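Onboarding guide, step 5: your first structure request.
Type a short instruction followed by the sequence, for example:

Predict the 3D structure of this protein.
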Amino acid sequence: MSTRFRNTLAVFVLTGSLALAGCGSDSKEAKETSTPGTSTSQQAQGETTSAAPDAKTSAAPDAKTSTAPDPKTSAAQGTTVPDGYKEVTAPTAKITFAVPQDWENLGELSDSQLEELASNVDQSVDQIKTLLAQLDLFVMAQAPDEAGITPNLNVAKQTVPTSVVPDQKTVESLLQKQNATLDSYETVETANGQGVRSAYTLTQAGKTIKGVMLILPNAQKAFTVIYISGSTAEEVKGFADVVVQTAH
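The system replies with structure tokens like these:
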């Protein structure tokens, strides 16, 4: 458990700061509240990034060729939940989707678990709670993979009340501000309407983190920002495929 928590927080600081940035370029509220998470971990500082690939050469994932598990169980609004997955809801962002059945909600950790987490990363329990309070939902695998990275997903509380789907330039600018490199950009269709899926790469504490940023409409047709990260692009794409497939 100690190893899991130690690796998870390194990823959490990264994805938390990205999520707080949200779609600040499109939302006054997001601009006023966006604060990169640089004060909680020195690992999140000082990284450099290369220029994002040109749109014409980006290898954008193809949702139609997804290897996501076959859906078996009926869910709301015409979506289905694959075997081995469960639905979770981001209460403020008001979006529901499926994640692996055994993933844990960091916001539901007991005080003793938070104390263990805080001691492993040299932070106070209050600091950890502050970080968790900045996100609407944070779920993670139960253990890190062979690369020492725990696959995880988080959702920003801020939503963006706009009908304009963010373009590649907007997404690229957002990721570059967080020292991440855009690998691909594409639009996707969900039960709530059209959104965006963008794969990215970030190096943190000597580890290469692969991620997907999803900007998807919620039930109120406002965009929500979801970050999924892990150690391989294929693994993260698989998780993202299921989120897109089941989001409502």
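Each response can be followed by summary notes, for example: The CA atoms of residues 159 and 224 lie 5 Å apart.
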